[in-house]
Amino acid sequence: MSEVKYSKEHEWIKLEGDVATIGITKHATEMLGDIVFTELPEKGSNVEKDGTAGVVESTKAASDVYTPVSGEVVDTNQEIVDDPSKINQDPENSAWFFKLKIKDKSEMDSLMNKDDYDKFAKENNT
Amino acid sequence: MGTKKTSLYQLHLDCNAKFVEFAGYHMPIQYSEGIVEEHKFTRNHSGIFDVSHMGQLFIYGGEELIKDLEKIFPLDLKNLKLNHSKYSFLMDKDAGIQDDLIITKIDEGFLIILNAACKDNDFKILKELLKKKYKMVLDGNRSLIAIQGPKSSQILNEVVDGVKDLNFMSGNWFLFDNQKVYITRSGYTGEDGFEISILNNYADKLTRELINKGSKLAGLGARDTLRLEAGLCLYGHDLDKDKTPVEANLKWAISKERISKGDFIGSDIIIKQLNDGVTKIRVGIKPEGRIIAREKTKIFNQSDVHIGEITSGTFGPSVNGPVAMGYVENEFSKKNTKVFLEVRGKKYAANICSLPFYKKSYVKGVNQ
User: CA-CA distance, B40 to B47, in Å (whole number)?
Assistant: First the structure.
């Protein structure tokens, strides 16, 4: 079964086998406001845990998207590039950002579960 | 001194505003519906903006004041009719812009609307230039409420009878709740609209009535996307002391009659630039694709030579794409010139374009 975990940078990650789907949380979208631009990592590229792996921009500012685990980018979601407002509409489901073939499952261990993340998000509401 | 609040602060709270500190004020950047929705609602219906942080400077005087102000502003003030407004700027001797402003002729003198971040300094400069000869009041007892968008005339007229007959860039005194309010048909969104100068104690009541009639609050975020689509400058970004009105492509705001005499502050430089041309000039810039080029983004020509910088850039909700303006070397300022913008280390194609990005729908003269 797949479990969803969360990072302090407000990404969610869902692991199925050795492929992780990553996106940003609803809380993150509420802080950002209307998302109007998205940049995703290139398919086939390698990303490192806590490194930048994309950009989202609101009308106000640009923010980096980080990857909570390392791996090879095996798929990206073109739909959120073509229509970034989809991220505001369904951030933790259809508006995923990229899929990674992960190297080290133990990198998942330090991430938060839903309850811990909700608590974290509430305390870091900026 | 702490951060100041406007008289609409409680209303902003009631409407779930997100606040930012702007020029020493707690100002709403957006409300619960968000910038894009507030922007579109203003374009299609009517948005209300609290701009009470801006300076409302009253200068009282007659013929002599007009002469003295003409030494400062490049305007034909002696022919400015009662209750008519002009866009202008306060320049230094090198024609550098210290602020941009709207000046309106009122019965007892002039009302000048100044940018929040500049107003105290403007007041000092003007007091000095006018040699303390005139009564000047930077009025903290009045709020300034803008209502903008195609439905605004109808909505405001239901609350303040008669405003629908105002012409664009003119104003008058009206009554709201038996209080005198000064209303001009103006704004900074590219839409038809009004700015209402009203005593602080009545601002909340007026605004709530406008909301009841169908207008909605919009924050500084939407104000920024609206004005940028309309090709309008924001002081501190598109205009500053290192830029002249000619460089800022605002020469339309300088009176031709005054240029021929050239007896205002900065006139030597203005006349020289009008005759000889300028080395840099403000242009509209439309990135290809969706990439957003923000303030300070470097602009390159096709030979990869650095030719300028973006001064404002965002996503334009009505244009449904990125929009920007900035300064480029004069020879690259022609419409459709291809340029490149450096964003996060990569260069993206863009084109110089004419402003505005979004066509204005100002009401001209409904009485004419």
Answer: 9
